[in-house]
């Protein structure tokens, strides 16, 4: 097995681990760091269930090698609530009933968070376009879009 020692920050905490050079960041987050909020959906970067923020940018971790994370700043859904309080995006998802089975929710939360932190204002159509990389099989998207609107439209 060909491994490499890597270091990065995840949710504000410094982490060092041995990663197989073929291991995805998704596998490292779930199997080595026990961060189970990041979900494995399609495994090919199409569904968005595994979305995290790396240096503020949305990344599908199922197709991103763990070794590429060396030296980076990673945020997962577990890092969004602070001091027991949900983030604005998490609260909006809850308020708008945008969660059913919850499998896709972490990816949507991270994608909407990246949009909110961009400082831009988004129309409903722009929100739909920006979220097109995240799939949901339960909600029909309307509640998710309403939650995003609540956070993104000022």
TrEMBL record:
InterPro entries: 2Fe-2S-bd, 2Fe-2S-bd_dom_sf, 2Fe-2S_ferredoxin-like_sf, 2Fe-2S_ferredoxin-type, 2Fe2S_fd_BS, Beta-grasp_dom_sf, Diverse_Oxidoreductases, XdhC_XDHase. SUPFAM superfamilies: 2Fe-2S ferredoxin-like, CO dehydrogenase ISP C-domain like. It comes from the Bacteria. Pathway: Alkaloid degradation; nicotine degradation. PROSITE patterns: 2FE2S_FER_1, 2FE2S_FER_2. Keywords: 2Fe-2S, Iron, Iron-sulfur, Metal-binding, Oxidoreductase. Residues 4-80 form the 2Fe-2S ferredoxin-type domain. This is 2fe-2S iron-sulfur cluster binding domain protein. It comes from Acetonema longum DSM 6540.
């Amino acid at each position: 097995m060909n491994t490499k020692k890597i270091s990065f920050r995840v949710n504000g905490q410094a982490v060092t681990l041995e990663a197989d050079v073929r291991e995805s960041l998704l596998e490292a987050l779930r199997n080595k760091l026990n961060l189970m909020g990041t979900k494995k959906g399609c495994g090919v970067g199409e569904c968005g269930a595994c979305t995290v923020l790396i240096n503020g940018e949305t990344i599908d971790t199922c197709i991103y090698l763990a070794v590429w994370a060396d030296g980076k700043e990673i945020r997962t859904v577990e890092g969004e609530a602070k001091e027991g309080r949900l983030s604005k995006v998490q609260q909006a998802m809850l308020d708008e009933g945008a969660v059913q089975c919850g499998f896709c929710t972490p990816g949507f939360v991270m994608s909407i968070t990246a949009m909110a932190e961009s400082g831009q204002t988004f129309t409903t159509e722009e929100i739909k376009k920006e979220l097109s990389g995240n799939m949901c099989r339960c909600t029909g998207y309307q509640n998710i879009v309403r939650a995003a609107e609540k956070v993104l439209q000022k």
